[in-house]
Each structure stands twice: as structure tokens, then as C-alpha cells.
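If it is no trouble, can you show me the amino acids of a protein and the C-alpha cells describing how it folds?
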Amino acid sequence: MKIEGLVAIVTGGASGLGEATVKRFVEEGCKVVIADVQENLGKNLEQQLGNDKVLFVKTDVSSEESVDNLVKKTVEKFGGVHIVVNCAGVLHAGHILSKSCTAKDFTRLLNINVLGTFNVSKAAAKVMASQKALNDKEERGIIINVASVAGFEGQKGQTIYGGTKGAIIAMTAPLARDLGKFGIRVMTIAPGIFQTPMAKALDKFAETFKRTTPLGRLGDPAEFADQCVALSKNSYMTGTVVRLDGGITLPHL
């Protein structure tokens, strides 16, 4: 799929993996909408990249109404939706028998990580399905969801976080099967440990993570963005999960 001139929505696009992805798609000639709750960061990024290329829309992905507004403003500004990258997510750590691992915590992560992914995917897919095909392969768009290696092999204290990321992994194939007939592809990236603001909570384990990664380093957000672009361009990639983790096996910490 040729992506120059297409319209992308990146949730969680104001920082970390999302910010790198926004910048990369702009470099590729896309129009990009930043969806985030971090208004100052989002508006600053919009100003930095230019409001002819980028739009910031304050969005709570756990709210169906907020997501509908996001998609509406995207179409009004840029005329359609062709690429979605669901980077919005939150981290949680806490042993299941501790006071920091509660049903309230689980509900919060489910609402943002899982329901948020569902809300954005569904709202964007409605628009994609109604659009003209982009090429002779009848492509209309791609949705890229973001899980984590914790969804496969979560560490101690990751019952809640790993559970939500495992749910995103499990959604991949059925979403692709639902949407394939409309020319919409669905992929999931399961990142390892990247150098992002979210990962700062794991700083004390950084050296351990590096030692358990064959490449001996953490991921660069630009490498995540490169993968999003590659998946968008490859017309035969759908319904599966790509581990982007430097070959790491999470240690039992």
C-alpha cells in the first residue's frame, strides 16, 4: 500500500512510541492526527510539525463519545482515515496479593488498553469500510494495535498489565477476519523494552533487560515507527502479531 498522501491516526501520539510514529508518518508524506490526553504535549507537537500536516485532538480512548469525536474531526480536517496506530496505553505493576493490585486497577487498564483499542479500531474501521479502495488490491486501510511481550510472558507483578496486553493479542486474528472483506488489514506489534517515558518506571531493571536482549540494548522508538510504516506498506500482512523486542526473553525478576 502506497502511504504517501494517506491519513493516519496515532493514539498516545504525544509522547514515546506514539510521538516517534507521528513524526515518521509525516516524513512519509502522510497527514497525521495525534490523539492523546496530554494536551500541552500534543499541541506542541502539532505546532512543531505544522498544522497543515498534523492535527491534535484531545481524546480519551476509553470513551466512545470522545473517540467518535476524534474520527469526526479527522475526516473533517483531512477527508478520511487510512491508517490507525493504537499506541495509547498505561502501565501497571503490583503483586496480585498486594494493595497495589486491585479490581479498580484492573478496570482502569482494561478501559484504556483494551476498550480503548476496541473503540478506536471500530470507529476508524467504519470510516475505512465506506471509503473508495486505494488500489487494485481493494485496500482501504490498516489498523495496527500495540500489545507487549508481557502479553506472552509477563513478569511478577504484571498480572493486570499482561492480561490487558494478552487481550489485545487475542483480538488480532478475529479483527482481521471481520475486516478483511472490506480491504482493511489488522496487525499487532508486541514491543519489548523501549526507551520511552513509560519505561522509566523500569529504570532499575534496565541493565538486566539489556543483558537478556541478544542485541544488548533497549529499543529506539524510531525503530517502532519504522515497523509501523513497514506493516502499512506490506499489503499481505494481516491477522498476526509481530514481536519487536530485540530477541528479549523477559527475566523472572
In short: Residues 7-191+221-244 form a domain with the Rossmann fold fold (CATH 3.40.50.720). The two ends are 42 Å apart (CA to CA). The chain is about 45% helix and 15% strand. The first helix runs from residue 16 to 27.
